[in-house]
């Protein structure tokens, strides 16, 4: 099977459900060796961050969640698992990489029980209603727009109600995270979230992986889509299935091996672009510095001439001070003088006395 052609064909399909059908047909109707190579290509491209690989892994997860567990399905998965553990690489240099790939792909077709299981002694939180509400009414409320009802229904344990909630466009990511992170929980409830459109959210996928009440098979199939730091944390997590830790180790090492050539190429390019350090001065710089040093005596000589000419300037300064400008009085005498005229009263008194 041509994996590149299959990925291009899958990428051209826009409807998620049609992608699931295409992957289901390839998994169930192809030979175990072809399925192994196809799923291995999905995982490798998803680990290095290629978008078609991530879309293919999401379609594979939804395919495995909706696939009926019949005898034919069991036999097909068994053949793929045996082929993954029996095949070897033709090149000895790639033997370790091939071994990691075999481990990861083989684990994706397993479906162990959850690490923790809801028992009858564990009391699961249930919302309180002011009246008796039937299952049909809850499903109706889950499809409606009443926010008070929706906030109560996210704590419901019935998968049918959760399926209606996941299809309701009025719910936000925080509501779905309330369903996903609830502990204790049931596998059927988390299954409804995994087959919905909310599986495209990375936060929701990470919450499904960290829930120990989730099915281990679903967790294993979602792990190739995790970030490198989250994979590293799963290697040493305590509240997970041992098979999850083993797969996390294999995925962590496989991603490092796949990214090693790219990092080496980036390092070589950065070294080529880095300029070399010049320890010696170029000849032109040395010549210019010698010219500057040679011209320094002339500069000193000119400065001495300037100092020698300074006494003449000082000697001429007293002459300038000794000849002040004489200001002429241009005012017309008598022009500014005003004659005091006698007041009217004073003139009359003088005439009377006379």
Keywords summarizing the entry:
0% strand; 2 domains; 354 residues; mainly alpha; 64% helix
Condensed summary:
With 354 residues, the chain is mainly alpha-helical.
* Quaternary structure classification: single chain
Number of domains: 2
- Per DSSP E runs of 2 or more residues, the count of β-strands stands at 0
Structural class by sheet pairing and helices: mainly alpha
Main beta-sheet strand count, sense and barrel state = none
- Identify low-pLDDT runs: 299-304, 308-340, 342-354
Over the alpha carbons, how many angstroms does the gyration radius reach? 46 Å
Mean pLDDT: 80
Give a verbal description of the structure:
The chain is an all-alpha fold and 354 residues long. The chain has 2 domains: 1-113 and 215-259, no CATH class; 116-214, no CATH class. It has helices at 3-11, 16-29, 32-47, 51-66, 71-86, 95-108, 135-143, 147-153, 159-166, 173-180, 187-194, 202-210, 216-222, 228-234, 242-273, 283-294, 296-308, 310-322, 344-353. The longest helix has 32 residues, at 242-273. The protein starts with a helix and ends with a helix.
